Amino acid sequence: MLPVELIREIIFCYVDDATPEKPTGLVHPHLSHVWFEDRSKAYSQSFSSLSLVSKVFREIALQAWFQTFAVRRPKVHLTGLSTIPGVAQWTRVVHWVNPASVKLGLLLGHFSSRRGLMAFIRLRKLRIDAFPSDHSHILLEMFEELPLTVVELELRYLEWPSPQQLVPAATLLPNLRVLDMHQEHAWCSLCNTCNVLRLKDDPVSITYTNGDGLPKLYNRYLAPLSHLRTVRLSAAYTLDLSVGVGLQDLKTPWRGECGECTSLHLTDESFVSDWEAKNKEEPHPPSLCEVTWTFALDQEEESSDSERPRDIENEYEDDFWMEVDHDDSDNDSGDSGASGDEN
Question: Which phi and psi (to 5°) does residue 167 adopt?
Fold first, then answer.
């Protein structure tokens, strides 16, 4: 028989290969014109045969699969951790999947398990998928406390990524090193909104390595995070030849400003000098080494109105409740809430 260490390496690689690639789309999958799957875990069927080989294989396979723990129904998933001993120690990534609305989140327990993640004593990363139909809820306010071991935070699909979303990070995540905000809209520090980014040509990825590149108030609220080194941001854009400006034309750093403010203000040399001075006066995260902006063409550019789904949020809510009702009936039959393909 092969050494256990080698078996472990093989199984971990196998489960990793079976895990779907992370989607690049900036729109929530249930609001997207193009359907895509946003799973962060492999399907349990993909490795179930390995767990039948022996006790050693089964434990290693479960360890590999529970490296990521998906939370869709906190009332069920976070109260069933003891069903499989070791889960809380194996988990390195928690994928917190919010339903279509805050109303559903209340019913499913997304706000009643405020200390629920403290059981994950080796947690390294927290990924939160936003409520697609809510623009104002502060995602991190769902938690009263988070493990100090968390060094990476990924926020996805925020419709309104205001600086307020980052306020709780300084208290909840004092050891944060990496922040990833994957969304359609960028926060404009000039007009304090998330207007559409209209450009005359396709932008290329922008990377700042001098501590620059963040929206003004992002700097202010992230400044207490002394270990923060990397921030990754995204924005969707539309092509508009009438704008007459592209990000490549600017002689000043672009930090998420909307298309109108970019065209009107960032091309005005007298304004730019004052704006740069204000950005330099703002406190910055002291260890910030890299800020990267990536871009994707807005979906409105890629699909016509006739192709858009009708009332897709309501359809998703109906599907979601059908799934919950089905899962609840399974639990009543004695199935564990922490088993199956949810986790």
Answer: -55, -45
- Going by C-alpha positions, the residue among 199, 202, 186, 317 that lies closest to residue 260 is 199
Distance separating alpha carbons of residues 169 and 124, to the nearest angstrom: 15
Rounded-to-integer distance, Cα 80 and Cα 75, Å: 9
Q: Which amino acid is at 298?
A: D
Secondary structure letter of residue 128 according to DSSP: E
How far apart (Å, rounded) are the C-alpha atoms in residues 336 and 81?
10
DSSP H or E segment with residue 234: strand 230-239
- Measuring CA to CA, how many Å separate 273 from each of 182, 246, 251, 270, 276? 30, 19, 11, 6, 5
Terminal Cα distance for the chain, rounded: 30
- The answer to whether the CB of 11 falls within 8 A of the CB of 4 is no
- pLDDT tens digits for range 46-102: 777 777 777 878 888 889 889 999 998 888 888 878 777 889 999 999 999 988 788
Secondary structure (3-state) at 16: helix
Q: Which residues contact 277 (CB under 8 A, 6 or more apart)?
A: none
Q: How far apart are alpha carbons 16 and 13 in whole angstroms? A: 5
Question: Which element (helix H / strand E) includes 68?
Answer: strand 68-71
Question: Which two three-digit tokens encode residue 280?
Answer: 């330099």
What confidence category does residue 180 fall into, taking pLDDT thresholds of 50, 70 and 90?
A: very high
Confidence of residue 251 (pLDDT cuts 50, 70, 90): confident
